[in-house]
């Protein structure tokens, strides 16, 4: 069992930056891939970025590549999402999720979810 808690959301101007954190409980955290997803009303939740258990593999959606960076510190059971150059279309509720696999980008294989943190971007 893994419990996830996101933090760091807020309101930022277009072009600004935010750093989201995902703090996890559970000894198996270091064995799990972690993904950041986002969702806006009436749209499906989308995978924004993911990082493997070891941290050696990462995935970025085309829309955020070059602007967002995912990282993890397994000694602190925490995953970070650094978001730079934010655009109004990045506004969403951001969720972190854990898969029981060491690496996957398949949304359906992310089993444990946080409660989400809101990111708003003003133009």
Tell me what the structure shows:
With 123 residues, the protein is mostly beta strands. It contains no helices and 11 strands. The protein starts with a strand and ends with a strand.
Q: Which descriptors would you attach to this protein?
A:
globular, 0% helix, 123 residues, 7-stranded mixed β-sheet
What's a concise summary of this model?
The protein is an all-beta fold. It is about 0% helix and about 50% strand.
**Uncertain regions spanning at least 5 consecutive residues:** none
Helix content: under 10%
How many separate helices? 0
Mean pLDDT: 96
Distance between the termini: 40 Å
Query: What is the alpha-carbon Rg in Å?
Result: 13 Å
Number of strands: 11
Residue fraction in strands: over 45%
Task: Indicate the topology.
Layout: E1 3-7, E2 10-13, E3 18-25, E4 34-39, E5 46-51, E6 58-60, E7 68-73, E8 78-83, E9 92-99, E10 110-113, E11 117-122
Parallel strand pairs: 2-11
Antiparallel strand pairs: 1-3, 3-8, 4-5, 4-9, 5-6, 7-8, 9-10, 9-11
